[in-house]
Design a protein that fits this description.
The chain has 388 residues and is of the alpha+beta class. The protein folds into three domains: 110 residues, Acyl-CoA dehydrogenase/oxidase, N-terminal domain (Butyryl-Coa Dehydrogenase, subunit A, domain 1, Orthogonal Bundle), CATH 1.10.540; 115 residues, Butyryl-CoA Dehydrogenase, subunit A, domain 2 (Beta Barrel), CATH 2.40.110; 144 residues, Butyryl-CoA Dehydrogenase, subunit A, domain 3, CATH 1.20.140.10. 48% of the residues lie in helices and 15% in strands. The chain has 13 helices and nine strands. It has a four-stranded antiparallel sheet, with no helix packed on it. A three-stranded mixed sheet has the order 1-4-5, with helices on one face. Helix 11 runs antiparallel to helix 13. It starts with 6 loop residues before the first helix and ends in a 7-residue tail after the last helix.
Length: 388
């Protein structure tokens, strides 16, 4: 058993750190947070350096790296800035479905633009009336000749207002029981007639990671855009995505927690009260110790889940645990970081309040933590364990 990163993995971490130290200006981050704008310039620079869609095979423009390496990249991006990092990391979201289930023609058509910084994708699943329930959809896709006509509304969609490609899940058969057997996924270009997008503003956090609602009104999509060219595979494809999505969120949460801890520790060493540095007070020391232990535990669990995926041993129990635990740690650590900063932590220019706001979403999207606990319990009840 070896817990040491490879030299390549260490080099990747250092490269991301150098990039963020040079490019992630605090003032710019605060401006984008206030304006709720996507960091296009930073995204393009990150693409040029190979930090976006690094897990894509080289033939589709990626670096051919593993999930663990991608986890390290996301962790370091979010450590530097919890919202800029997430905005960049989520630019290829949903493309895992095309990579795993798409035809060769679909992969060649839709994937290469993503790592080049020429296109952004979106995973289009959540509906106003269903939320975490992905066992049925109100959005319908009806076959008509060599195309499908799609009608319905999706909401709370990351990258909705900037994506070129929507990886969209629909009900292609609304009579089959259970409904999940009648689901299918399509790649829908955002400029197609019948597609309209409405921005969702005034979010609590991750504001540079833009969000919107997508409506499809008699949107005609060619049958060749059906992922895998076979109906009824949508539920399986969605579950596959969620395993990857949970790893993205776990890495985001891990980086957010580490970034908040870094700032809190530095501040505690500098801030004086009652004639002493506050880091000398036992109450502060205990907070820092607890924060560090939680972060390291989350890191071990997240890296283990990523490593298993890279060995071809996808373990949904582990990915659920990693997402659920790392997100809770992010919320707890950022909360303590604000407390260490005191009143100054409540002010935007010190970044900590933004980390605190950004952390909360990790407990909600890609399946709420309540849903994760349901899934974890289900796996355990069915006999799956982590220890033989």
């Amino acid at each position: 058993m070896n817990f040491e990163l490879t030299e390549e993995q260490k080099d990747i971490r250092r490269a991301v750190q150098e990039f963020t130290q040079k490019e992630f200006a605090k003032e710019r981050a605060l401006e984008l947070d206030q304006k709720e704008e996507f960091p296009f310039e930073l995204w393009k620079k990150a693409c040029k350096l190979g930090f976006v869609a690094a897990y894509f095979p080289e033939e589709y423009g990626g670096q051919g790296l593993g999930i663990l390496e991608n986890t390290i990249i996301i962790e370091e991006l979010c450590r530097a800035d919890s919202s800029l990092g997430l905005a960049i990391a989520a630019a290829p979201i949903g493309c895992e479905v095309i990579l795993e289930f798409g035809t060769e023609e679909q992969k060649e058509k839709f994937l290469p633009e993503i790592p080049k910084g020429e296109a952004i994708s979106a995973i289009v699943i959540t509906e106003p009336g269903h939320g975490s329930d992905v066992t049925c959809y109100d959005t319908k896709a009806v076959k008509s000749g060599n195309e499908y006509i799609i009608n319905g509304t999706k909401t709370l969609i990351t990258n909705a207002t900037i994506a070129k490609y929507f990886i969209t899940f629909c009900q292609t058969d609304d009579k089959v029981v259970p409904p999940r057997k009648g689901q299918s996924a399509f790649v829908i270009e955002s400029n197609r007639e019948g597609v309209s997008v409405t921005p969702i503003k005034n979010k609590m956090g991750i504001r540079p990671s833009v969000t919107g609602e997508i409506s499809f009104s008699d949107c005609h999509v060619p049958a060749e855009n059906l992922i895998g060219l076979k109906e009824g595979q949508g539920f399986k494809q969605a579950l596959y995505f969620f395993n990857h999505g949970r790893m993205l969120v776990a890495a985001q949460a891990l980086g957010t927690a580490q970034g908040a801890f870094d700032r809190a520790l530095r501040y505690a060493k500098e801030r004086e009260q009652f004639g002493r540095k506050i880091v000398e007070f036992q109450a502060i020391q205990h907070k820092l110790a607890d924060m560090a232990m939680k972060i390291e535990t989350a890191r071990l669990l997240t890296y283990k889940a990523a490593w298993y995926m890279d060995q071809g041993k996808l373990n949904p129990l582990l990915t659920c645990m990693a997402k659920c635990y790392a997100s809770r740690v992010a919320v707890e650590v950022t909360n303590e970081a604000v407390q260490i900063f005191g009143g100054y932590g409540y002010i935007a220019e010190n970044e900590i309040e933004k980390f605190y706001r950004d952390a909360k979403i990790t407990e909600i999207y890609e399946g709420t933590n309540e849903i994760q606990r349901n899934a974890i319990a289900g796996f355990l009840i069915r006999g799956q364990t982590l220890v033989p």
